[in-house]
Design brief:
This protein is of the alpha/beta class and 280 residues long. The chain contains 10 helices and 9 strands. It binds ligand C2E and magnesium ion (MG) (3 copies).
């Protein structure tokens, strides 16, 4: 990151600086004040059981609305937050806010007691020494049972397995919180880490799911991952399901759960459907 390399802002006038880096500096400036200015909010996307078509849980996704930048997608600012360490306070805010909203839905009875809320956690956060401690402290503060939470960690970060990571994941699972491997298949990884790592759910990346009907190679990959999930005896969530045809195909192939625009877009909880309603 240009700014942190020492020559400071004079670098901006250097002819070969990339436009992207200038944008990043501007974004970082806004990012650092965004927590205090209350510019972040959370949206929740239903996760559906493909057989019953009932909502069994949700994934919580962060949104950022800034006066100058407009809406900025997490794919743009999460990497920047990770590079600068800002993800640590930001991730803590996400967890706290998600638990607060979850706790209201559970205590009002709108969501059943076995509802599972998935929260994305980045590797930088997970590697903080006190991560599991602060996770459980947050749950306690909001009076939430551990089985109501699943943390999502991307396959790519799982591959950077270290002692601390394994130990943290083990502590988290012993405490009753689930662990999901996110974007499975996109990490270009070897399968060897799967037998070492503990996890409760696999999520297959939307890149494979979206054209499962038209691309026979992708169909083979999805089919192999479905069999893998059966072998490990963990549920598989297919991400990015956009049509009835893809949902039906995945169901026929034996995929247990799904998430995608066909069922519902990520929404603030105020716009959420009645959980009892069978979707769509
Ligand atoms: P992800 O965890 O894999 O989340 C799924 C992404 O797919 C979300 O993008 C979601 O809006 C999108 N999506 C859902 N259904 C469909 C569909 O049917 N079609 C298509 N094309 N896309 C669909 P989003 O919200 O832009 O988030 C992007 C990524 O940013 C997430 O990928 C996750 O890695 C990261 N992220 C989001 N919120 C957080 C957060 O609170 N903390 C951390 N550390 N990362 C987050
Ligand atoms: Mg995720
Ligand atoms: Mg994903
Ligand atoms: Mg992703």
């Amino acid at each position: 990151f240009a700014c942190s390399k020492g020559n400071g802002y004079s670098m901006l006038y250097h002819s070969d600086i990339r436009a992207e880096e200038i944008l990043n500096i501007n974004m970082l400036r806004h990012l650092k004040s965004a927590l205090a200015l209350n510019e972040f909010f959370l949206v929740f996307q239903p996760i559906v059981n493909l057989t019953t078509r009932n909502i069994t849980g949700a994934e919580c996704l962060i949104r950022w609305r800034n006066a100058e930048l407009g809406m900025v997608g997490p794919d743009h600012f999460i990497p920047l937050a990770e590079d600068t360490g800002f993800i640590v306070p930001l991730g803590a805010w996400v967890l706290d806010n998600a638990c607060m909203q979850l706790s209201e839905k559970l205590s009002s009875g709108e969501w059943p007691s076995d509802f599972k809320l998935h929260v994305n956690i980045s590797l930088v956060q997970l590697m903080q020494q006190d991560f599991s401690h602060s996770l459980f402290a947050t749950l306690t503060r909001h009076n939430i049972a551990p089985h109501n939470i699943s943390i999502e960690i991307t396959e790519t970060s799982m591959m950077k397995e270290t002692e601390i990571l394994m130990e943290t994941i083990s502590t988290i699972r012993r405490g009753g919180v689930s662990v999901a491997i996110d974007d499975f298949g996109s990490g270009f990884s070897s399968l060897s880490y799967l037998h070492k790592l503990e996890f409760d759910t696999l999520k297959i990346d939307k890149d494979f799911v979206s054209d499962v009907l038209t691309d026979s190679r992708n169909e083979s990959i999805v089919s192999a991952v479905i069999r893998l999930s059966h072998g490990f005896n963990v549920p598989l969530v297919a991400e990015g399901v956009e049509t009835a045809e893809v949902a039906d195909k995945l169901q026929a192939m034996g995929c247990q759960k799904a998430q995608g625009y066909y069922f519902a877009r990520p929404m603030p909880l105020s716009e959420w459907p009645d959980i009892e309603k069978v979707l769509p």
